[in-house]
């Protein structure tokens, strides 16, 4: 089992679990505003579940690289799409503002419910 710290919660899950699924199952809001309604449901095409992750996760794959390379995201960003990430070790997750989570202001951190 590995630990995820997000939005003031510590969650345990199996190694290799999908980050978005684990966060949503445990009541962590991975979307900002209407993105909770208007999103691709884990296909990796909308980019609304973008987060910053500290710790061991799966490497970027082609679909995630493609989505993160076009606006409003940037290929030089440290953000990842939670729907495309497998948790491989203990991690800390931070969510930023903006419809796609592309902003520079923190919405929530691993330890706090809001930034």
Chart the SSEs and their pairings:
Layout: E1 2-6, E2 9-13, H1 19-25, E3 50-57, H2 62-68, E4 79-81, E5 87-96, E6 106-108
Parallel strand pairs: 1-5
Antiparallel strand pairs: 1-2, 3-4, 3-5, 5-6
Q: Gap between N and C termini, in Å?
A: 28 Å
> How confident is the prediction overall: mean pLDDT?
95
* Number of helices in the DSSP assignment: 2
**Helical residues, percent:** 10-25%
Radius of gyration, whole Å: 13 Å
Q: Topology as H/E string?
A: EEHEHEEE
Major sheet: size, sense and barrel closure? Answer: 6 strands, mixed
CATH fold category name = Ubiquitin-like (UB roll)
CATH architecture: Roll
- Backbone shape: globular
3D architecture notes:
With 115 residues, the protein is an alpha+beta fold. It has one domain (2-108): Beta-grasp domain (Ubiquitin-like (UB roll), Roll). It contains two helices and six strands; from the N terminus they run ββαβαβββ. The protein has helices spanning 19-25, 62-68, and strands at 2-6, 9-13, 50-57, 79-81, 87-96, 106-108. Strands 1, 2, 3, 4, 5 and 6 form a six-stranded mixed β-sheet that branches.
